[in-house]
Design goal:
- The complex is a heterodimer of chains A (329) and B (499).
- With 329 residues, chain A is mainly alpha-helical.
- Chain A contains 14 helices and 4 strands.
- In chain A, strand 2 and strand 3 form a beta hairpin.
- In chain A, helix 3 runs parallel beside helix 8 and helix 3 packs antiparallel against helix 11.
- Chain B has 17 helices and 22 strands.
- Chain B is 34% helix and 26% strand.
- The chains are: A mainly alpha (329), B alpha/beta (499).
Chain lengths: 329, 499
């Protein structure tokens, strides 16, 4: 037998491999954890692993998923948006009202999306140009937009009778409901936007170090407005899809939605300090949120306990991430 | 003299880097021991081990002959070690007294006793010979004064070992003198002083002995600083002979490329005029606070310009007043504060190089060209000899000199580069890397670019510039061609009371 000697070259190669292994475990710990959870649930929870349930699960997080894509961009640029829940409600109410008044789906969708863009741009201008703290600015618009939703609908749900509009939520392509496909499309689009465009790179740059990004020639203010504007557009679209599914525009819809979206992003490893985001992580974060809720429903867990469990999971994920980065120091 | 501080075969590894490799050296009580080495040589790691921030992987740390294991910065303080970091740690909103006694304020009946605290700190400051109001807010003080606060804190903690990490990097000559006097007094009182600096003049002035590091290893300890010739020190540090680090190359300079008239703004009142020629290296000298950085930021569009300011580049007026407009026209700036304004710390070397220039060659397209960006990054890593394991390394893990080269690469990659502004390009950067940065500056100028070098380091300005503009108290006080720019002539223009 030949003796094995450790030459410096293989030693270095070994280290390199060890480093890559560590990085791999770091990067994929959350997806692996989710995959493990999924397998365990498949065998332990009755009715979990059925086509109907999985589709239902995806449908339940479709809106969160859509908005999580844009919230990821927002958080990556070191900003914050609390107004998305109100925007969903307002877009739904506005869409339903235009539909009622004109009967035109095109006008309803166009009007709502424009309103969403306006809300987003308003947030962006407040934060980027007028330098209002993002938390305060979007807290204010959250209240204002919710108020507008109630005022416009006079506090009542606005019913939808348009067949074409209602069908959207029920239509299936390749066995998947359209809302789920739209969410999937959002993930693809924003994945490309984040990783393969100047827009995405500059978003990460202004989140990582705004002053350095500005001095490197990034137009920080304009970029921030665009990020919020996109957020408004996607959120309004999510509001319309929700309205289509519940066949009415509800002014009190999506309360606390903003926190679910931010939780999903944080679960997915998006840093609130900005500069770090991965679309795949956000997808896993959204799925974890949906799965946990779905399983608790299947097991008939009391709604009161569901809040507790969701809080614990969020905290556990963040703590785990802290320990991981501490270990790397 | 007794040995007070001893490192015995201390090692520290980081992923992919051997920061310290079996380092041993001793420092004596009542002496100033200098630590020299290029950036990344291991000095900072050593200091962090001494301060309890890092745990060594191997070896022993002894203080007064007893082995010590620090688990936190608090342990080190308890053992009588104080580190005066390059970046000072203080609470800007609190007073001098509160900062000095942070966490240890005297109490009376369970409440803070502000009067006693104030008196206590006042006495100590007076003993140090420092004129400072204990009630002043630390955020309002100058950097030099903040340093004094930090030293006062160390003394009140009864530190026997005090380490200074490049304390003079942002001090004026006069402020440095005050610091040196204080350090000599501490030496006289029998304390052990560790002193890190890149400025050789300072080390000769202050140190009794010195130890030189390179690539995480100790190279040599010189027990008597005064006996060591300069060339030996530099050769020890860089591992080769380096005669003149500036290595000035004369070149022909052409017609004015950049014409600035009436430049000013809220950050720098007044109207300031100057021009730079094609291929010319223009030095800007002045004391800290003379307005050089402000003037360049105005030129770059980083701060708001006043009405009537005119900037002409090759005869064309500069449109727009933002950094992106300046860059598009070919004016770029390497900022003074590399960490806060230059690098994207968590992004990769490749990203830091490509961030600005990627908008070229992408005509109309919004998508990144990953292959092209990687090739560009590799090209500059090779050309500028940037020491990094690979282009995807996070830039924060590089040494200061290599970070600066990455920022330079960012601008050299701009195909439209016409005017390169460098604000303190070699601050905190070691001799070897400095030499390479000067070489890059000459090459840029030889290509016909105008280069503006701001520096507080007088030999540096005189060493590289074709022409020197001196600023004093927010205005341009004079201009000297290279031939007339002697140290005395420049200082006469720079000092407020030397007219």
């Amino acid at each position: 037998m030949m003796s094995i000697t450790s030459s410096p070259a293989t030693d270095e190669g070994e280290k390199q491999r060890a480093r890559q292994r560590r990085k791999w475990v770091n990067d994929y710990s959350m997806p692996i954890a989710y995959a493990a959870l999924f397998v365990v649930l498949t065998f332990t929870v009755e009715n979990f692993f059925s086509a109907a349930n999985i589709v239902g699960l995806m449908l339940s997080v479709a809106q969160i998923g859509m908005v999580a894509c844009t919230m990821m961009m927002c958080l990556a640029s070191r900003d914050f948006d609390l107004s998305v829940g109100s925007t969903i409600a307002f877009a739904g109410v506005l869409g339903a009202m235009i539909l009622e008044a004109t009967g035109s789906v095109l006008l309803a969708v166009g009007g709502s999306v424009l309103a969403g863009a306006a809300i987003g741009a308003f947030n962006g201008v407040l934060i980027a140009y007028l330098r209002v703290n993002a938390l305060i600015a979007t807290l204010a618009t959250m209240l204002m937009v919710r108020g507008l939703a109630f005022i416009a609908s006079q506090g009542q749900a606005v019913g939808i009778a348009n067949e074409a509009f209602m069908d959207f939520g029920d239509t299936r392509w390749f066995g998947l409901p359209l809302p789920v496909l739209v969410t999937a499309l959002c993930f693809v689009l924003f994945g490309v936007l984040l990783n393969h465009t100047i827009f995405g790179r500059n978003t990460l740059a202004i989140g990582g170090n705004p002053e350095a990004a500005r001095l490197a020639g990034v137009n920080v203010e304009r970029l921030r407005v665009w990020i919020f504007l996109l957020q408004g557009v996607v959120t309004a679209a999510a509001g319309l899809i929700l309205a289509s599914r519940i066949t009415s525009g509800q002014p009190n819809a999506a309360q606390g939605f903003e926190l679910d979206v931010i939780s999903a992003c944080v679960l997915g490893g998006v840093s609130l300090q900005g500069g770090k985001a991965r679309i795949f992580g956000v997808l896993v974060g959204v799925l974890i949120m949906g799965t946990v809720e779905n399983v608790m429903n299947l097991m008939n867990v009391d709604a009161f306990y569901q809040y507790l469990v969701r809080g614990v999971i969020l905290l556990a994920a963040v703590l785990f991430d802290q320990l991981k980065t501490r270990g790397a120091r | 003299m007794p040995v007070s501080l001893q490192f015995d075969q201390v090692s520290k590894h980081f992923p992919g880097v051997k920061a310290l490799d079996g380092v041993s050296f001793e420092a004596q009580a009542g002496a100033v021991h200098g630590l020299l080495g290029e950036n990344g040589a291991g000095k900072s790691t050593l200091l962090k081990i001494l301060g309890g921030q890092y745990k060594p992987d191997g070896g022993r740390l002894l203080i007064d002959g007893a082995e010590r294991h620090f688990h936190s910065a608090a342990d080190a303080i308890k053992a009588g070690v104080a580190i005066i970091h390059q970046e000072l740690h203080y609470v800007p909103e609190l007073s001098v007294t509160e900062n000095v006694l942070l966490g240890r304020m005297p109490r009376r009946f369970g409440l803070l006793d502000h009067k006693a605290a104030q008196r206590h700190v006042q006495e100590r400051l007076a003993a140090m010979g420092v004129d400072l109001d204990p009630a002043a807010r630390v955020g309002d003080l100058s950097i030099a004064q903040r340093q004094m606060v930090e030293i006062c804190k160390a003394l009140l903690q009864d530190a026997q070992v005090i380490a200074f990490d490049e304390p003079t990097s942002s001090l004026s000559a006069r402020e440095s003198e005050v610091l040196f006097r204080l350090i000599r007094e501490l030496r006289g009182a029998g304390r052990t002083i560790i002193y890190i600096s890149h400025r050789l003049e300072e080390l000769y002035e202050l140190c009794d002995a010195c130890t030189i590091f390179r690539d995480g290893r100790k190279i040599v300890t010189h027990p008597v600083m005064a006996d060591v010739p300069r060339e030996t020190l530099i050769a020890n540090m860089v591992g080769r002979e380096l005669k003149d680090i500036y290595d000035y190359r004369a070149r022909a300079t052409g017609a004015p490329r950049l014409q600035v008239r009436g430049l000013g703004g809220p950050t720098l009142p007044g109207r300031h005029d100057f021009s730079v020629g094609r291929g010319e290296i223009l030095g800007f000298f002045g004391l800290v606070g003379a307005g050089r950085t402000e003037l360049m930021r105005l030129l770059y569009g980083a701060d708001q310009r006043q009405q009537g300011a005119s900037i002409e580049l090759d005869g064309q007026p500069l449109r727009g007043s933002s950094p992106s407009a300046a860059i598009a026209a070919g004016i770029v700036l390497c900022p003074e504060d590399r960490k806060e304004q230059g690098i994207l710390a968590e992004a990769s070397v490749a990203e830091n190089i490509n961030i600005s220039c990627r908008r070229h060659g992408l005509r109309g397209g919004i998508f990144l060209r990953h292959g092209k960006e990687a090739a560009l990054a590799d090209e500059f890593i090779r050309k500028l000899r940037i020491k990094t394991p690979h282009r995807d390394q996070e830039i924060r893990l590089l040494s200061g000199g290599n970070q600066q080269k990455v920022i330079l690469a960012r601008w050299l990659a701009e195909p439209t580069l016409k005017v390169l502004i460098l604000d303190e390009p070699t601050r905190g950067i070691d001799v070897g890397a400095r030499n390479e940065i000067y070489r890059i500056i000459y090459e840029v100028a030889e290509r016909g670019c105008s280069v503006i070098v701001i520096s507080s380091d007088l030999p540096e300005v005189l060493g590289v510039a074709d022409r020197v503009i001196v600023m004093r108290d927010g205005r341009i006080s004079g201009e000297l061609p290279r031939a007339d720019a002697s140290e005395t002539a420049v200082l006469r223009l720079a000092l407020p009371d030397a007219a």
